[in-house]
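dude i think i finally got it to work??
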Amino acid sequence: MKIVYSDAKIGRTAQREVVKDAEAQLIGRRMGEEIDGTLVGLEGYKLRVTGLSDKSGAPSRREVDGTRKVHVLIHSGAGIGRTSRGERRRKLVRGNTISADTEQVNTVITAYGAKSAEELFPKKEKAQAEEAKQ
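look at this
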């Protein structure tokens, strides 16, 4: 499972992998809840869950309760692109709760810790150079 965290102050986003042992602490959490950043190595940080995606790529919707997948009739928001005026589409979406099938958890930073922004959000050049070394 991956956690994507973003900082609205500086406008940057990064992602980290959650270790298998810590995934159990995330299961059952809902969109809008705050989680502790220590699950992904962000000591002192608090993260608010803003979105989810499952293994098949289905996005989550806040108004669908639980972890189930359903076809809903929607006109905007997660799971649908641009529509014409008045157009609605039936789309497959996932519920608002983190489950074992969740692949990605999108979050935003709400409380800051001791680490600086440079440590949290590595530059692309540095990340690409590190990947090339491996």
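DSSP finds three helices and seven strands in the chain.
im so relieved honestly
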